[in-house]
Amino acid sequence: MEFSLIFESIFIISIMIALGSLISRTFPFNSDTRKLLVSLIVNIAMPSIILSSILNVEINRETFKMIANVFILSVIINLLGILIGWLFSNTFYRHSTKKREIALLSGLGNTGFIGIPLCAALIGPEGALFAAIFDAGVDITLWTIGVLIIQKNRRFSFKSLKELINVPTIAIVFGLFIAYFNMKPPAVFIELANQLANLAAPLAMFYIGILVMNLYRKKTQDSDQEIWVPIVVKLIVLPACVALMVNYLYLKSDILQTILIQSMMPSLTLASILFAKYSADENMGAFTTVLSTIVALITIPLMLYLFL
């Protein structure tokens, strides 16, 4: 992997985040505009990049085996990050009431909004495909183990599994289904997916930039002392552990690179939404997401330089 491409991609991401921050000055960022942006990203851009990746990659039985490996590794890495975050919070903030938030922010990354477009840019269609499968593992972990951890009464409800039935997940299932049966959609459909896929990175980065400015205006100061734990674990400790782990795995270089890049992603964008839903610290979720995204612009190329 060429490091000039890595720095170029990170630079472009930084510019798009900055543009999002500037755009936020031109309109009020409320629940309606937030829902609109999230809907465009989750329901149009992300499914398009997933379908585009699947339709531009030759998928056979061996590919399906690799997809299963990526999914399993994703769940293992997510749980490892949660465990490390929990151990760090118990070590440094034993009496904290936010151990649950710290654990989830340490293990679950922004593998959808940032990870899939970045893997597509650095690795190509195969990278985007495996990144989407990795993100599906994050979703599974979030809406099962994550919900169980964040709830105070520790009761799991199958109603939370409804969140797994979303457009990106449907796109993965549909795309793999037509690939498995060697069904070729019309050329116009493939071209539409390719063009809409180009929306993913700009829209996601604009959204992050808007979050940065919105949080700056609020000047949130809660949980300032504790947020260093999920940031350090998510951006440095977990990727280092994953880099050591993948050395013992006999997988294609594209898969190993995708797994490593996805492990370096900043904290989950949906964290503040999840925390609000289950009466956890929503401000901590938003603040950690934004700050870890900014720090990740430095740590991602650094970690890739060290481990690739």
TrEMBL record:
<keyword id="KW-0813">Transport</keyword>
<keyword id="KW-1003">Cell membrane</keyword>
<dbReference type="InterPro" id="IPR004776">
    <property type="entry name" value="Mem_transp_PIN-like"/>
</dbReference>
<feature type="transmembrane region" description="Helical">
    <location>
        <begin position="6"/>
        <end position="24"/>
    </location>
</feature>
<feature type="transmembrane region" description="Helical">
    <location>
        <begin position="228"/>
        <end position="249"/>
    </location>
</feature>
<comment type="similarity">
    <text>Belongs to the auxin efflux carrier (TC 2.A.69) family.</text>
</comment>
<keyword id="KW-0472">Membrane</keyword>
<dbReference type="GO" id="GO:0005886">
    <property type="term" value="C:plasma membrane"/>
</dbReference>
<dbReference type="Pfam" id="PF03547">
    <property type="entry name" value="Mem_trans"/>
</dbReference>
<feature type="transmembrane region" description="Helical">
    <location>
        <begin position="36"/>
        <end position="55"/>
    </location>
</feature>
<dbReference type="GO" id="GO:0055085">
    <property type="term" value="P:transmembrane transport"/>
</dbReference>
<feature type="transmembrane region" description="Helical">
    <location>
        <begin position="102"/>
        <end position="123"/>
    </location>
</feature>
<keyword id="KW-0812">Transmembrane</keyword>
<feature type="transmembrane region" description="Helical">
    <location>
        <begin position="255"/>
        <end position="275"/>
    </location>
</feature>
<dbReference type="InterPro" id="IPR038770">
    <property type="entry name" value="Na+/solute_symporter_sf"/>
</dbReference>
<keyword id="KW-1133">Transmembrane helix</keyword>
<feature type="transmembrane region" description="Helical">
    <location>
        <begin position="195"/>
        <end position="216"/>
    </location>
</feature>
<protein>
    <submittedName>
        <fullName>AEC family transporter</fullName>
    </submittedName>
</protein>
<feature type="transmembrane region" description="Helical">
    <location>
        <begin position="67"/>
        <end position="90"/>
    </location>
</feature>
<feature type="transmembrane region" description="Helical">
    <location>
        <begin position="287"/>
        <end position="307"/>
    </location>
</feature>
<feature type="transmembrane region" description="Helical">
    <location>
        <begin position="129"/>
        <end position="151"/>
    </location>
</feature>
<feature type="transmembrane region" description="Helical">
    <location>
        <begin position="163"/>
        <end position="183"/>
    </location>
</feature>
